[in-house]
Amino acid sequence: ADLIQISEESRSAAAQKLKIGIYFATWWALNVVFNIYNKKVLIAFPFPWLTSTLSLAAGSLMMLISWASRVAEPPKTDIDFWKALAPVALAHTIGHVAATVSMSKVAVSFTHIIKSGEPAFTVLVSRFLLGETFPLPVYLSLLPIIGGCALTAVTELNFNMTGFMGAMLSNLAFVFRNIFSKKGMKGKSVSGMNYYACLSLMSLLILTPFAIAMEGPQVWAAGWQNAVSQIGPNFVWWVIAQSVFYHLYNQVSYMSLDEISPLTFSVGNTMKRISVIVSSIIIFHTPVQPINALGAAIAIFGTFLYSQVTILTSKLGFGTFKPSQPSA
Ligand code: 3PG
């Protein structure tokens, strides 16, 4: 009987691993498609405030239809849920629009290399704003992350300050989003999928007035006509693709957050950037100098080091930070 139990346990552990593997592969693939179409749209139609609003609108619409048609069970929420969601939505909105503004100014690969520095922001925010302490090896593992990002930034051929600052602001905002959202998801009354849907809806409400103020219908109409005349009717499909894939990859990532620790999520997210960086360099023929690529490799290696050091030191019981606590 013991043997049967052990083999059942190992089978269910293998099934769980497979499930997480499928989540990760789907999340990364959807993200690559989003990034490609998002950039294609931004090249022809440089209005990042509108494209980021459309991404949230597409997701909100898809989820409202799914709830109304009972394809997905609508979440049971109360006022406290929405109150707890508000800071998450604000941080999500800022992080999303800042990343999109960044990608409208610089190569997709550059934005994502800077965004691979997110674990460093997690540690610094946790240390200086939340007062959590980390063992020395964790701080040391940030050096390659920060050094690698800095090396890439100073050797970037098409450096642009707005592009750089947008990616940095996105990092900062997403650290807060992840800290608040893990708190908000506690109790598990709302699934990851529905949690992200509510997040989209609220972010859409926050972002819309700002998008109108920053860009507005007049410039959108003129820009749209220009883009359609350049690209042809396919342009509409590009916009739809970037919007729908934005929702899908985020939905899958929040579904996987139900199953994994925030640290695993954070590392998975940085590894996801490798596929985005490589595929966007190939598709958009982005010029890269070897020293620039070296910076990216060092930063990504730093994230791997950071994850290993965090797991090891928390197992040994150093510091107040636990990988099961909110992280990027
Ligand atoms: C966005 O538009 O929100 C960014 O591309 C998001 O980036 P991330 O989900 O890869 O952090």
From TrEMBL:
Topology of this chain in the membrane: Multi-pass membrane protein
UniProt keyword Transmembrane present: yes
Gene Ontology biological process terms, A to Z: monocarboxylic acid transport
Gene Ontology annotations for the cellular component aspect, listed alphabetically: chloroplast membrane
GO molecular function terms attached to this record: carboxylic acid transmembrane transporter activity; organophosphate ester transmembrane transporter activity
Ranges where the Sugar phosphate transporter domain occurs: 18-307
Major location (coarse): plastid
Annotated keywords: Chloroplast, Membrane, Plastid, Transit peptide, Transmembrane, Transmembrane helix, Transport
Intracellular or extracellular location(s): Plastid, Chloroplast membrane
Transmembrane parts of this sequence: 20-37, 49-68, 161-180, 192-211, 231-249, 294-312
Domain of life: Eukaryota
Protein name, as recorded: Sugar phosphate transporter domain-containing protein
Organism: Platanthera zijinensis
